[in-house]
Design a protein that fits this description.
15% of the residues lie in helices and 41% in strands. It is mainly beta and 205 residues long. The protein folds into 2 domains: 79 residues, Elongation Factor Tu (Ef-tu), domain 3 (Beta Barrel), CATH 2.40.30.20; 92 residues, Elongation Factor Tu (Ef-tu), domain 3. The strands form 2 sheets. Strands 1-2-5-4-3-6 form a 6-stranded antiparallel beta barrel. Strands 7-8-11-10-9-12 form a 6-stranded antiparallel barrel.
Length: 205
């Protein structure tokens, strides 16, 4: 479980393919604090640490086919800047919102606006009435692991605004038109939708 408050950005330093799996080696300045089998969010995708090189401040995570298909990890290359967050602590303040690290799908940045002190980002994604993958105005959305509030909302599109701090410390400053990002819809919204679907099924019986 995560909060969507990015701790740092890590750099991809190596990529190795083994059968259908991909092993990503990343560098971050707190790698010596990590532990094997620990979960960490990478651009909002929960991955397990499988090895650590504390002297080099590097670690390795593995992604399987399903993860590669549903996330933007296939766009990573050596040098990619990745938002990272360790699992949520239960002994402090809870900032952000509840993030599972289970990427629902990807979205594509279609426009970036410089709003003279903030930035507005517009995204489009594959919308399906069956999946009911919608955003809600003023609701929560996770983009590349960053907890944000939805501004504009429509089926298949939404926008968010960010402050200079977020622009600086996350990989949002790399986003341009066409950038593919990971999105996770609000977990509470997903559960409410499931309950409503079950209720409507019962009414039709």
């Amino acid at each position: 479980m995560f909060t969507g408050i990015v701790e740092k950005t890590a750099r991809v330093v190596a990529i190795e393919k083994e059968n259908s799996n991909y092993h990503f080696t990343l560098s971050v300045d707190f790698a010596d604090e990590l532990a094997i089998d620990q979960s960490m969010a990478h651009d909002g995708c929960c991955l397990t640490i499988v090895s650590i090189d504390k002297e080099r401040q590097q670690y390795v995570v593995t992604a399987m086919d399903e993860t590669m298909l549903k996330t933007n990890l296939g766009t990573w290359h050596v040098g990619s800047e990745v938002n990272v967050e360790r699992a949520m602590r239960m002994d402090g303040r809870f900032d952000g919102h509840i993030v599972q690290g289970h990427v629902d799908q990807t979205a594509r940045c279609v426009r970036v606006e410089d709003c003279n002190g903030s930035w507005r980002y517009y995204f489009e994604y594959d919308y399906s009435p069956e999946k009911k993958n919608i955003t809600v105005p003023k609701g929560s959305i996770t983009i590349n692991g960053v907890s944000l509030t939805v501004v504009d909302s429509a089926p298949g599109s939404f926008s968010v605004s960010i402050i200079p701090y977020t622009h600086e410390v996350t990989n949002f400053h790399n986003f341009t038109e066409g950038t593919v990002v990971n999105i996770e819809f609000d977990v509470f919204g997903k559960y409410v939708q499931r309950l409503m679907d079950a209720y409507m099924v019962q009414l039709q019986k």
